Amino acid sequence: MKTKKIPNLQIIPPSQESGLYETDTFMPKMHQVCIAVGKRASGKSTSVINLIERMKFDYCIAVSPTMSSNKELMDRLNIENVFEDIDDTSVIDQIKDIIKKEAEDLERYEEELKKYNKLMKDLKEGKYLNDDLLLQFFSDEGSFIKPTHRWDGRKCRIAVIFDDMLGSGIYSKPRKLNGLSTYSRHVGQLKKGGAIGCSLFFMIQSFKCQTGGLNKVIRNQCTSLILFKTKDKQELKDIGESVSGEINEELFNNVYDTAIREPYDFLFIDLHKKKEHPSMFRRKLDEFIITEELK
User: Fold this and answer.
1) Mean pLDDT by 10-residue block, N- to C-terminus, for the chain (295 residues)?
2) Among positive and negative, which fits the CA dihedral 55, 57, 60, 63?
3) In terms of C-beta density within 10 A (0-12 exposed, 13-18 middle, 19 or more buried), how is residue 244 classed?
4) How far is CA 66 from CA 27, 122, 200, 222, in A?
5) For residue 166, which of 119, 205, 198 has the smallest C-alpha distance?
6) Per DSSP, what are the bridge partners of residue 157?
7) Could you tell me if 43 and 234 are in contact, meaning their C-beta atoms sit under 8 angstroms apart?
8) Residue burial 18-46, b: 16+ Cβ < 10 Å; e: rest
9) How far from 147 is each of 18, 63, 141, 150, CA to CA, in Å?
10) Quick one: pLDDT at residue 49?
11) What's the CA angle centered on 185, arms 180 and 189, to 5 degrees?
C-alpha cells in the first residue's frame, strides 16, 4: 500500500489546549471529569479531597444530600455552595450561572482596570482628565482607588462535587448533566476567548448501574478514574474495557492487582496524562505503575 502527500492540506493543531490551566508537575491536567468508584467507606471522599487540594482549586460547589453533614469534606475544602435537592435538575443551571458570574466579574475588572490605567497615564502626562473616570475612581478620602478582583485578575478554579446521588432526578434525567459533563471546560465563556470552566468529580459506588447511576455519556467524558477494590468481576471488566484503547484486559488486571494491595489503596487512571508522566496508571496518587508494555 502506498500513500501520496497532498500539498497545503496539513492539519494545524491549536497552539494550546482549550480550557487548559497550569497544574503542578505531577498533578493531572485541568479541567477534569473525574469518577471515583468504591463501595461505602472505601475511601472515595478522602481520595477526592486530596486530589482537589493538590490541584489547588479556589473553591468547590457540592451537589449532595449529605454534604452538610460530611465534616471532613466541609472542613478541608472551601465549599461555597451546597445543593441538597438532587432531584431538581435546575441545579445544573444554577451551577452554570455561578460560573457565568465569575466570567462577568473578571471582564468587569479587566475593563475597569483598563480605564483606571488610562486615567493614571493621563494624570501623569498632565492631560485632560475625564470627569466620569474621576468620579468612578476618586474616593471621598481624596485618593484614587484601583479596581479590585477577588482572584487578582486571573481565572478562578472551580471544582463541582457530586456525591450520594444514586437514583436522583439529576442522574435519572441526565440531559442537563450530560451537557455540563460534555462542555464543562467551556462554561463561563469570556468575550476575549477562553472560559472559566469547571472540573467535575463524581463519587459513586458502582461504575455501571441499571437505573439512576452515571450514564454512558458521562463515563465517556471521564478524564481520570479512581478505582478502589471491587469483588465484582463484571465491574472490573467494564472498567478494563473503558481503557481498552490503551492496554489489553490482561495487562489492566495486572495493573489493578499492583495498585490494590492494602486497605484504602486505589488505582488512579489518568486518561489524558501529561507527556512527561511515565504512565497513565498510579497506585494512589504518589506511585506511578510502570511496565515494559506501558513505556
Assistant:
1) 85 63 94 94 93 96 89 85 96 98 98 94 88 88 92 97 94 95 96 95 87 85 95 88 80 93 95 94 96 68
2) negative
3) exposed
4) 28, 56, 18, 24
5) 205
6) none
7) no
8) ebebebeeebbbbbbbbbbbbeeebbbbe
9) 28, 33, 16, 10
10) 94
11) 95
Give the C-alpha separation, 196 to 19, whole Å. 8
Torsion-angle region of 194 (φ positive above 0: left; ψ -120 to 50: alpha; else: beta): left
**pLDDT at residue number 99:** 98
Residue the block writes with cell 444530600: 65
The secondary structure of 163-203 as a DSSP string is: ES-TT-HHHHSTHHHHHHHHSGGGSSB-TTS-B---EEEEE
Distance CA 185, CA 198 (A): 6
Angle at 212 between CA 207 and CA 217, to 5 degrees: 60
The pTM of the full predicted model, rounded to 2 decimals, is: 0.91
Segments in the chain forming alpha helices (H): 44-54, 71-76, 90-125, 131-137, 169-172, 175-182, 216-220, 233-242, 249-259
